[in-house]
Design brief:
This protein has 250 residues and is mainly α. The chain has 10 helices and 3 strands. Strands 2-1-3 form a 3-stranded antiparallel sheet, with no helix packed on it. Strand 1 and strand 2 form a beta hairpin. The longest helix has 23 residues. It is globular, with a radius of gyration of 19 Å. The C terminus is likely disordered. It comes from Euphydryas editha (Edith's checkerspot). Keywords: Endoplasmic reticulum, Membrane, Transmembrane, Transmembrane helix. Belongs to the derlin family. It is found in: Endoplasmic reticulum membrane. One of its GO terms (biological process) is response to stress.
Length: 250
């Protein structure tokens, strides 16, 4: 029990509670302690009956059953693996920044869910976080089923194709990719490569609630800011689903 407690406490804050709430709420819905209908995103009771908890519970709840149990476990693995890597890597020491990115992705999922009648938000939310990590670690080699290995930048698209072939789905994955791309663009591409303002900078009150720490992680790197050139000059300056590893030395 102490080993589990040590492992649980070692998981970074936001990843730990995201995973915990997902498992707990999904189990509650599975055994009928609360009717699943009150946990999903439904625009009519959300607006007309003021059931404002639905966008939150729709993020954490996933219907567990014989046909969905394996997919739920895979989602939990991706959540734990890639959210943890982001939180301890690019966003290490910046909890408010990571929370603000999660909040933005979640709001995008909620808006799209209300528009297209999407009752469960776990799939696109997890894929959006995975996509951001993959973009920050494009050249890391990841392993997939059957020993296939490829660069991390292709992983979201492989997952999209895999679900399209196996289950005839792919819509959730596509939405997650689009949300993740928008988040990555606003966080890194737009301010660093196009010189635009940092639109996803967390407000001051979030920095007060989740102050920066001195710890700096090293897994993943943001796109490099473009350096202008002078005229005539140069630029100065088990199965391992998606488990990354680098090839070659530094």
């Amino acid at each position: 029990m102490s080993e589990f407690k040590d492992w649980y406490n070692s998981v970074p804050f936001f990843t730990r509670y995201w995973l915990t709430f997902t498992i707990v709420l999904s189990i509650i819905g599975r055994f009928g302690l609360i009717s699943y209908y009150y946990l999903i995103l439904d625009i009519y009771p959300f607006i007309s009956q003021f059931q404002i908890w639905r966008p939150i519970t729709a993020l954490f709840y996933y219907p567990i059953g014989p046909a969905t149990g394996f997919h739920f476990l895979i989602n939990c693995y991706f959540l734990y693996n890639y959210s943890q890597r982001l939180e301890m890597g690019m966003f290490a020491g910046k909890p408010a920044d990571y929370f603000y990115m999660l909040l933005f992705n979640w709001l995008c999922c909620v808006i799209i869910g209300l528009l297209v009648n999407l009752p469960i938000l776990m799939d696109p939310m997890v894929l959006s976080v995975l996509y951001v990590w993959c973009q920050l670690n494009k050249d890391v080699i990841v392993s997939f089923w059957f020993g296939t290995r490829f660069k991390a930048m292709y992983l979201p698209w492989v997952l999209l194709a895999f679900n399209l072939v196996i289950s005839g789905g792919g819509v959730m994955e596509l939405l997650g990719i689009l949300i993740g791309h928008l988040s990555f663009f606003l966080l890194f591409k737009y301010p660093q490569e196009f010189g635009g303002p940092a639109l996803l900078t967390p407000p001051a009150f979030l920095k007060q609630i989740f102050p920066d720490t001195r710890y700096v992680g090293g897994f993943g790197s943001a796109p490099q800011t473009r350096v202008p050139t002078r005229p005539g000059g140069t630029v100065f300056g088990g199965h391992n689903w998606g488990r990354g590893q680098t090839l070659g030395g530094n």
